[in-house]
């Protein structure tokens, strides 16, 4: 790689000479932190039913769950701040430093929840400290996405970037599945009383320990940003980022459609199958676990496909299929009675999602120059994800409460249409992508 190309991409000479074996090691180290981040974040959701009464004394179990759900939602709305803070650190101090700090913050949040005294012991301070811990986790997850996506895109190299970067979503989905499996195992080892008394703490303590391992792995990584990039006056600057309005709008649009569709087909789908399809909870858990395992395994396949056909074509296929398929797919799913039919329809929806999720990070990283890449990937993603992904369940349930659940299906299709328009507006990053030194996008 020439000096000019290195300056344009922000890639270090050492990274340019990284062997395939070293690249795989770096991807594993980077994505291991991503797995831990998402495991810890979702462990809260899956254990809240057990610890709600310990922090929110109330005569109403529903009120307790609403309080814990509210604190879970706060984590989503801390993500934009995390995207800005850690994106700035990554662009000014290096991707490696940002990734180490983000997983350290997640470790602190998980450990804090795992050892936190209950309301009975310290009174109102207990829910306050629980909120502080969730704020820390929200900041961490908000910073994780953009920095990890940037690092994995930069270290992967031309020709295999889609394939290697796809492991970000492999570990994201894997983190959710791991949280489910840990809670499932504890439910079969401990009694209900033991789970409520102290068993719910175990997933958080395991997450904190795993975060330390991930932090050590990340500490051994090579930095992917060049010295020139980090010392640039524009590094991590919001003012410099605003010079790339086209890339910002495309990233926002992709996240609006992609996150809403992803959360609809994953986290909200469990409630949809219970409340609308009327399947029993045990069957729903089995259907969704199997579907998510297949979804996880498909990520590298579709990431490799993007290396062949281009990221723009992947996005056109995702957004076009989601726009046309959301309404008929969800409408048909609401009428099925067979678990296998539900599984087939959900898997169809997840296959469509894979065109986006497999390249979610790299397609955005290619749109920004090195000095604002982590900030450009992380900040608009965190904003749109909080607004559209984090509220997917609330909006869906609101439409159902109003007796117009079908309108939610059209809402999903409409946001996919926004992503489709952005896909058509997006340049072919094989010719105009910043990661390969060809960035010539207009604002």
UniProtKB/TrEMBL annotation:
Keyword Transmembrane helix: yes
Compartments in which it is found: Cell inner membrane
Keywords: Cell inner membrane, Cell membrane, Membrane, Symport, Transmembrane, Transmembrane helix, Transport
The keyword Transit peptide is assigned to this record: no
Membrane spanning stretches: 65-86, 98-116, 122-142, 163-186, 198-217, 247-264, 284-305, 317-336, 342-363, 375-396, 408-426
Pfam families the UniProt entry points to: MFS_1
Domain Major facilitator superfamily (MFS) profile: 26-431
Membrane topology of the entry: Multi-pass membrane protein
GO MF terms held by the record: symporter activity
Gene3D superfamilies, A to Z: MFS general substrate transporter like domains
Family under the similarity heading: Belongs to the major facilitator superfamily. Metabolite:H+ Symporter (MHS) family (TC 2.A.1.6) family.
Biological function: Uptake of alpha-ketoglutarate across the boundary membrane with the concomitant import of a cation (symport system).
Record's protein name: Alpha-ketoglutarate permease
The organism of origin for this protein: Methylobacterium tarhaniae
